[in-house]
Amino acid sequence: MKWTDDRGGNVDDRRGSGGGGGGMIVGGGLGTLIIAAIVFFLGGDPSGILNSGSVQQSGNTGQRRELTAEEKQIGQMVDMMAKWNILTWDQIFKENGMAYQAPEVVLFENTTNSACGTAQAAMGPFYCPADQKVYMDMSFFGDLQQRFGAKVTEFTVAYVLAHEVGHHVQTLLGTTQKVDALRRSGRYSEADMNRVSVATELQADFYAGVWAKKNDDSRKILEPGDIQSAIDAAQAVGDDNIQKRSQGYVNQESFTHGTSAQRKEWFMKGYNTGDIRQGDTFNQLLK
To answer: The whole model's pTM is what?
Structure first.
């Protein structure tokens, strides 16, 4: 992946601030946190698990530390990627007669406050519709490689960020609100809502593919292997792959994000078409 001079991507870097939000975190030990990461990695609204279950006080010492040179470089990379998303989605929205409002990207370590509850590294990157911010603890990419078998590259990070920004696009277009209304209505079974969740997540993958295509058309940042690294990450967090690795068998009715094949399919459909109008996963998957 080629770097550009684009910066100013609306990034709030909270790393080194002394342990994060000082609020409440989901308890139950490391096992619970790993399960939460599996369930909500690359997810939309994590408030259901962030605000439920037993809790314990986080260990915020209030001490600050200087970021390392490597951490500062990572911050520059995320700032560049965030700016790419702003420029690209502003272009896409204008092409479709709409105005784009960019989300803030929050970099943190351990824990930090969000409007969806206390964000934790173990939750994985997520988007919070309540404050329209993307939350990322970069240490999770090590887990993505070690636990789920994805080879992490710079463009892996770009794909993950683009997926979360895809959830923000859903909020701007009203999709998030419609899905939330369905969930709160109480008229649909858990299995039905799981199918809606799969459609939501695959659409975010589609939007990530659209972003990759449009961004490369404008800035020529892709290098050989970049798209494959995004596909590898998408497939690594397919429900079938995660369930096989975590419990040894697959239960399709419990899928919430889509299979590895579906995640690849919809990311590539977005990349190949570059057309936001081709991403109606709901009509195609919920017939």
So the answer is: 0.85
